[in-house]
Write a structure and sequence with these properties.
Layout lengths: L8 H21 L7 E8 L4 E10 L1 E2 L9 E12 L2 E6 L1 H9 L2 H12 L9 E6 L32 H11 L5 E6 L23 H17 L6 E3 L17 H18 L6 E8 L3 H9 L2 H4 L4 E5 L6 H10 L4 E6 L6 H15 L5 E6 L2 E2 L16 E4 L4 E4 L1 H10 L7 E7 L4 E7 L5 E7 L5 E7 L2 E7 L4 E5 L1
Parallel strand pairs: 4-19, 5-6, 5-12, 6-7, 7-8, 8-9, 9-10, 10-11, 11-12, 13-14
Antiparallel strand pairs: 1-2, 1-21, 3-20, 4-16, 14-15, 16-17, 17-18, 18-21, 19-20
């Protein structure tokens, strides 16, 4: 089967317009489409391609796939979960680093990450409730011990760098960013160890006060022009860290949500904020979900489960949470990584596996760090150098994970639905989505450390590509 590539500038615009219109009708009426061509973008270390446009390839008749030729097969008429979005985290480290960049580099960063046409089109981002390890200092919004009514609550600290940073991104994204927030620890005076660091627990006598703190935060950010879409109850709720941390067992988290946080959010007018539990690794996420969701009163306040990737893969646990509690959502909320190609490959596989397990959104860690992997005020190794700012030169380094993440976020839009997608080759890991405009995006990762041929098959037709070793390809049709 011959492959034809169309590179006419006039043809590209017309083809995309017709493709959008026809696919939109297909999405509405469920009719079989006569696929003629697909456009592909690729990122691979071996070929030095970074979101490289391969142009158009022609479909040819191919009635029956077999087991011998590596094939990814899709069925656009079978749909699954809806995508909320993709993005990174507005940490203090990212905001402080951004503020130190010259205006030209700031504009470059904003366009590369948030421009919905020419950038990675981020639409789902995380931020922190006061400080975390990736803050330049430790602080809270109310350090007055015993202030149960939160009379001294203020987000003044965030007004210097974080709020301006978020507002700049919202402007570039035309306001189309859903932001969720996570606490790393209550203020020290609310905790059993009188320390924001090193774990400890929330004192029972301050459970009501801590719930009110969430409402004060939502009110303050709303007043600043930044509405918060979602909350997680506690970042890494079973991890005692040398930085800000706090322990909640599954039962303690359930009870806090049921008896304090859920009712307080509703009473404060924030009942529509998406509340998520767990916010840590996949390993015990089913047990955490089971405890919370099987309590009907707690469950009614909870929108979904948040999770990370740091210990083990356990992809099957993500799917099991969905299968057991299909009315609840799943958001991957933190992926710290270095800027290497190995990290980019790990990212590609994890995103595909999570999305195929009913995940509704995927968010990596710091949007931006400086040349030293910071700033951070407490312990641990630096990480999440998706984009590095060299503050000595004022320039930006876009590391491989940025481009691999873009293979997903640029082409799978908010509101997209996952469609049936299978592979007959263990080295071809794939996922596929149909966007609100009817365009289909298929993302394939070649896990083999060698080039291999592959074909995308749909409705009795196929288009073929050469997949570079450990490369990622996104095919649009």
């Amino acid at each position: 089967m011959k492959i034809r590539k169309i590179r006419s500038n006039l043809g590209v615009g017309v083809a995309l317009f017709l493709q959008t219109a026809i696919c939109g009708l297909t999405a509405i009426y469920g009719q079989q489409q006569d696929y003629k061509e697909a456009r592909a973008f690729i990122t691979a270390e071996s070929t030095h391609e970074l979101l490289h446009d391969l142009g158009f390839g022609a479909f040819a008749p191919f009635e029956q796939p077999d087991e011998d030729y590596p094939t990814v097969m899709i069925d656009p008429r079978k749909t699954f979960q809806t995508i909320v979005g993709f993005g990174g985290a507005f940490t203090d480290a990212a905001a402080v680093t951004f503020a130190k960049l010259p205006e030209k580099a700031q504009a470059q960063f904003l366009k590369a990450c948030f421009d919905p046409v020419e950038g990675n089109a981020y639409t789902l981002c995380r931020t922190t409730i006061h400080s975390c390890d990736y803050s330049d200092e430790m602080y809270t919004y109310d350090d007055v011990a015993g202030d149960t009514e939160q009379k001294h609550f203020t987000i003044q600290h965030d007004e210097k760098c974080r709020l301006p940073f978020i507002k700049r991104t919202l402007a570039v994204a035309n306001g189309n960013i859903k932001i969720f927030a996570s606490p790393w620890s209550p203020p020290a005076w609310m905790k059993t160890n009188s320390d924001m660091l090193h774990g400890g627990k929330l004192k029972s006598e301050y459970a009501k006060t801590w719930a009110l703190y969430f409402v004060k935060y939502l009110q303050a950010y709303q007043a600043a022009g930044i509405p918060i879409w979602g909350l997680t109850v506690q970042n890494e709720a079973m991890a005692t860290q040398v930085w800000e941390s706090c322990i909640f067992t599954a039962a303690e988290e359930r009870d806090f949500v049921r008896d304090r946080l859920g009712p307080t959010l509703h009473a404060g007018g924030f009942g529509d904020v998406k509340l998520m539990i767990w916010d840590h690794n996949r390993g015990i996420m089913y047990q955490r979900a089971q405890v919370a969701y099987e309590d009907a009163e707690a469950s009614r306040y909870i929108w979904g489960t948040a999770f990370h990737w740091y210990i083990g893969n356990h992809y099957e646990n993500v799917r099991l949470v969905h299968d057991a509690f299909p009315d609840k959502k799943l958001i991957y909320t933190e992926g710290g990584m270095d800027g290497s190609w190995a990290a980019a490959r790990h990212l590609a596989k994890n995103m595909i596996m999570d999305l195929n397990s009913w995940t509704n959104g995927w968010v990596f860690w710091n949007l931006l760090l400086d040349q030293d992997g910071g700033p951070r005020h407490a312990g641990g190794a630096s990480g999440s150098n998706v984009i590095t700012a060299d503050l000595h030169t004022g320039g930006l380094i876009f590391n491989p994970p940025h481009y691999v993440f873009g293979q997903f976020s640029r082409f799978i839009r908010s509101g997209a639905k996952r469609i049936a997608c299978t592979s007959n080759n263990d080295d071809l890991v794939a996922t596929a989505f149909i966007n609100p405009d009817g365009k289909i995006a298929v993302v394939v990762y070649n896990a083999r450390n060698a080039d291999q041929l592959m074909q995308l098959w749909v409705d009795g037709k196929a288009v073929r590509y050469t997949m570079p070793a450990e490369g990622v390809i996104t095919i649009i049709l």
